[in-house]
# Entry
Amino acid sequence: MEARSYSLLRDPLDIRISPSPEGEIVILGVPWDWSTAGRPGARFAPGKVRSWIYRFTGHAPGSRDFKCRFNDLGDVEVAPGDLIVTSRRIVDAARLAYSKGELAVFLGGDHSITRWLLEPLASEPLGILVLDAHYDLRSVSEGYTSGSWLWDLHLAHKGSVYAAIIGVSDFANPEYMASRAREAGFTVVPRYKLIEDLDAAYEAVDRLKSLGARNYYVSLDIDHLHASYAPGVNSLNPMGMTPWESLKILEYAGRTLKPGGLDLVELVPEADVADITASTASKLLLYSINSVLGGCGGESRPYNI
# Structure
């Protein structure tokens, strides 16, 4: 698709971000939310995020213009309620996405999809940066939960998965998960520790880089944000992080880790208020991509209009 002006404006020079088959970024939706124990509806998020990405312009006078292009592969064809079939399809689609561009961007879906999106990368040492209010190191007596994906990945690839979890919220997780994080060697930065400054988050990114992984990945669970910035999520997070804190951390991580993959999960459009969560999440995604790929040649001109 060619770049186009926004549909209702009679301004041919107001060009918005558009998909292109030659894009440096491969975008893939994963509309799966059968693993959530909270508010369902994340299956509808890929389309909502696309609707916001493709209404933004690439002009960023305060940072760096966005000149990247999206090669949009559409959505994985999930089998409703069938984890085995769907997980196999997610793995296959992710493998294709990694092979077709410089960066693969995945739109969830609940957080369980990250387990399968990472499978093509986990055969070699893998470093994962997670922004999340939760550890996601849960075990359940029956069923399947999006809160277990990181523990399941660790058990399946012991010794080759490194992780830093930033933004873990107080009073929101069972205590045993902290012990599991230590057992796995994961770095955890609680949200409370970021109130004064972001140094602990930057140090966690640096430590993750120092472990010598072959591949890096960033998972952005939008429920790490304060509930006023993210009302449309599976699990509301009072006193969570601000988008400005997240922006700084994601920009630093993008430059430092140069991840090959990035996902956005746990957005529930039908629980959102005036698209606050969807629009904020989509803009954070653009900032993250810009940091990884240097704007794809976009001009860097902070505060120079």
Summary: The domain at 4-296 is CATH 3.40.800.10 (Arginase; Chain A). Helices lie at 45-53, 83-100, 113-117, 149-156, 176-184, 199-210, 243-257, 276-293.
